Amino acid sequence: MAIYEYRCARCGVFEITRAMGSARRSHTCVHCGTEARRSFSVPHLNQPSTPLNRAIARAEKSRDEPEVVTRVPPQESRRPQPAAGR
Known about the structure:
There is one protein chain. A 4-stranded antiparallel beta sheet has the order 2-1-4-3, with no helix packed on it. The chain is 17% helix and 26% strand. Strand 1 (2-8) and strand 2 (12-18) form a beta hairpin. It has one helix at 50-64, and strands at residues 2-8, 12-18, 26-28, 35-39. It has a domain at 2-39. By secondary structure, the chain is α+β, with helices and mostly antiparallel strands. The protein has 1 helix and 4 strands.
């Protein structure tokens, strides 16, 4: 489904949800009932998740303001531990 915008001369912009490619050039205003013309706007794209947004912001910031590291971070063992008694 896609969201289409229409502009009513009296009420302003309103949105209608329709199947992709099925929008008409005009639509009856949902508020006052007059004919409204379809308007074109920038598509609304999905936003990445919050952790991804933070990672992107941190990477962009470090490009101009690198983080100062004073020590090597502790390493965690990534190998599975052997089972007890083996």
